[in-house]
Design goal:
Oligomer: single chain
Number of helices: 7
CATH topology: Alpha-Beta Plaits
Shape: globular
CATH class: Alpha Beta
Largest sheet: 6 strands, antiparallel
Length: about 160
């Protein structure tokens, strides 16, 4: 069994986009370097929402990522920057990313709508648009090899 984790964020103003993009880049680097991360994708929807769909070996690995580093730092801005924020997790047998219909269905039926300071009408009414999953940026675990490890040892004594 693997854990599927899906998040959707919608910025309340375009003025937050540059900082959001910066934090997304840092969090993406972190996720690809987190032990237990299997695969994922960053995508969007037609209403301008930002989606992350990720697969994890287990809940512990996902929680380690969520509660540390760049991701933890970025989360402090969520209530002020976003007018929509939703997350859902479930377990599945296979290691294939779920399709857009399954992601949207799970978000609407099981999703946790995170508290934001200025919720949009869509957030208040639990409306979730379908993600554009065939599109997007794939995320893969960074392969650590002995050359990387040896380079670290040389640089750091």
């Amino acid at each position: 069994m693997v854990l599927v984790s899906v998040t959707r964020l919608h910025l309340k103003s375009p003025r937050y986009f540059p900082a959001f993009l910066w934090h997304t880049a840092l969090s993406s680097w972190q996720i690809m370097n987190t032990v237990g991360f299997l695969s994922g994708k960053l995508t969007s929807d037609q209403q301008g929402g930002a989606w992350t769909v990720s697969l994890w070996e287990d809940e512990s690995a996902m929680r380690q990522y969520r509660s540390s580093g760049a991701h933890r730092q970025a989360m402090q801005y969520l209530p002020r920057w976003c007018d929509e924020a939703t997350v859902v997790h479930w377990k599945q047998e296979h290691t294939t990313l779920p399709d857009a219909i399954e992601v949207q269905r799970r978000m609407e039926s099981e999703g946790h709508f995170t508290k934001v300071l200025h919720p949009s009408p869509a957030h208040q009414n639990r409306q979730i648009p379908e993600p554009l999953l065939p599109n997007g940026i794939p995320l893969h675990p960074r392969k650590k090899n002995s050359a990387d490890h040896n380079q670290f040892k040389i640089q750091n004594g």
